[in-house]
Write a structure and sequence with these properties.
The complex is a heterodimer of chains A (about 130) and B (about 350). By secondary structure, chain A is α+β, with helices and mostly antiparallel strands. Chain A is built from three helices and three strands; from the N terminus they run H-E-E-H-E-H. Chain A has a three-stranded antiparallel sheet, covered by helices on one side. Residues about 1-35 of chain A have low confidence and may be disordered. With about 350 residues, chain B is mainly alpha-helical. Chain B has two domains: about 20-290, Up-down Bundle (Ferritin), CATH 1.20.1260.10; about 290-339. In chain B, strands 1-2 form a two-stranded antiparallel sheet. In chain B, strand 1 and strand 2 (about 270-275) form a beta hairpin. Mean pLDDT of chain B is about 90; it is low at about 1-10. The chains are: A alpha+beta (about 130), B mainly alpha (about 350). The interface between A and B is large, with 35 and 40 residues.
């Protein structure tokens, strides 16, 4: 039994993109299931043009039912316009132990930000 | 608790280098008031303590549906029925958010459910009191949900990420519960003499149990100190109770009703609200199963679980059937392609 549910790992889904793109962390671990039903991660888009954000998890026998349950559980108050459900087991995440390796490189690279360039301050339309 | 994974195996006599490194990182995260996420190393005691607190919380939401569900058919208007149904639906939702968050600690749903149904798990003592009149829906909303909010708002900043995030959602919905309760009492207190009396009687019965919801006083609360050190709790039981009393003392004036507490006064010197002595023996008795409705609540929960079995089975059978049809379709498509 794993101690983790993979999809709960993101800060409100903000690093979901990272989760999907990165190397498998602790592959092969199955999240807990209930009555044989898989666990699903629910993502809600609050309005058109915004990204889907992780809302929470639920158990359901299949994807269609997961969407229905997600509607009942997470969108009773106009929370959004679109729902995604993803099987928790289908989300691959970066290994938390590899945090430094994965995310340290931007440090010391301030020149990647516009605010680094002071000489041009005051120049219009730049 | 069954099924607990010992993430680093540090309960074993020998501590591995991973445990030592994990603990160092855990301590650093707590020290900088950041969040622990499910895959992080955590001390076994932290995992256990959170599992206990979060599952008790989830169980309370699920059992808490009962006193109110009992009143849906007897609510005085269609609007009140709709509101009460929405509220009961919310409680179910809160339970589910919290169960999901608890599962990230490694105890699966069936185990949690089993702990509740077999009476091994505790839940909030307040839901073992009967809801006798319609006014009780008001008192429960205003006092019980009010106490819950006072307790839960700081939990939005709990150090365990999934718990804090679940609590944000819970708190948003909870304030609707408190306001609808307040409105019920307000309407009754502006009604006939008998209605006003009914509202006062409900407050009289729920006041002390609501104050007990914050748990024993600080010196008798076994887990409090450790929970605060881990940034799970942010304020002590007594501090939260104080804050709550200060709020309702003002609100009850708007209702034109009173709190049943002869000792209640603000002590300028200590800056504290002094309130009546709470009966902690009663609290212990009710929490551990001896309250007026404990047996009834658990029996009802078991019955609902058993009576709902066909829904779970039907959903699973439907999912299998859909899958079979999909497989068949895929096979046909493949055959067609080959041909």
């Amino acid at each position: 039994m794993s101690s983790t549910v993979i999809g709960q790992d993101g800060q409100d889904g903000q690093n979901n993109q990272d989760n999907q793109n990165n190397q498998p962390g602790e592959g092969g671990q199955k999240p807990p299931t209930s009555a044989g039903w898989p666990l699903w991660e629910v993502f809600v888009r609050s309005s058109r043009g915004l990204s889907h954000v992780h809302a929470g998890s639920l158990h359901a026998p299949d994807a269609e039912m997961a969407v229905r349950n997600a509607r009942d559980l997470y969108t009773r108050r106009n929370e959004g316009v679109s729902l995604w459900v993803v099987r928790s087991t289908d989300i691959t995440t970066s290994d938390p132990d590899a945090k430094d390796m994965m995310f340290e490189s931007p440090q010391g690279k301030d020149y990647r930000h516009a605010t680094y360039y002071k000489e041009s301050e005051g120049v219009k339309h730049l | 608790m069954a099924e607990q994974k010992s993430s680093g195996g540090h309960l074993a006599a020998v501590r591995t280098p991973e445990d030592i490194e994990g603990e160092r990182r855990f301590d650093a995260i707590i020290a900088e008031d950041s969040r622990i996420e499910p895959r992080d190393w955590m001390p076994e005691a932290y995992r256990k303590s959170l599992t206990r607190q979060m599952s008790q919380h989830a169980h309370s939401e699920i059992i808490g549906m009962q006193p109110e569900a009992n009143w849906i058919t007897r609510a005085p208007s269609l609007k009140r029925k709709a509101i009460l149904m929405a509220k009961v639906q919310d409680e179910a939702g809160h339970g589910l958010y919290l169960y999901s968050a608890t599962e990230t600690l490694g105890t699966d749903r069936d185990t949690l459910n089993d702990q509740l149904l077999t009476g091994r798990a505790k839940y909030s003592s307040i839901f073992n009191y009967p809801a006798r009149t319609w006014a009780d829906m008001g008192a429960i909303g205003w006092l019980v949900d009010g106490a819950a909010i006072a307790n839960q708002v700081p939990l939005c900043r709990a150090s365990y990420g999934p718990y804090g995030r679940a609590m944000v959602r819970v708190c948003k919905e909870e304030s609707f519960h408190q306001r609808q309760g307040f409105e019920i009492l307000l309407e009754l207190s502006r009604g006939s003499k008998a209605q006003k009396k009914m509202a006062q009687d409900a407050i009289n019965r729920f006041y002390a149990p609501a104050l007990m919801m914050f748990g024993p006083s600080d010196q008798d609360s076994p887990n409090s100190q450790q929970s605060m050190a881990w940034n799970i709790k942010r304020f002590s039981n007594d501090d939260l109770r104080q804050r709550f009393v200060g709020m309702i003392v003002e609100q009850v004036k708007v209702l034109g009703l009173s709190l049943p507490d002869p000792d209640l006064r603000y002590d300028e010197e200590s800056g504290q609200w002094l309130h009546m002595e709470l009966d902690w023996d009663e609290f212990k008795r009710v929490v551990s199963g001896g309250g007026p409705c404990n047996a009834q609540r658990l029996a009802r929960r078991r019955e609902a679980h058993e009576n709902g079995a066909w829904v779970r089975e039907a959903a699973a059978a439907y999912a299998r059937k859909q899958q079979d049809q999909q497989d068949q379709q895929n096979q046909q498509d493949q055959t067609a392609e080959v041909a």
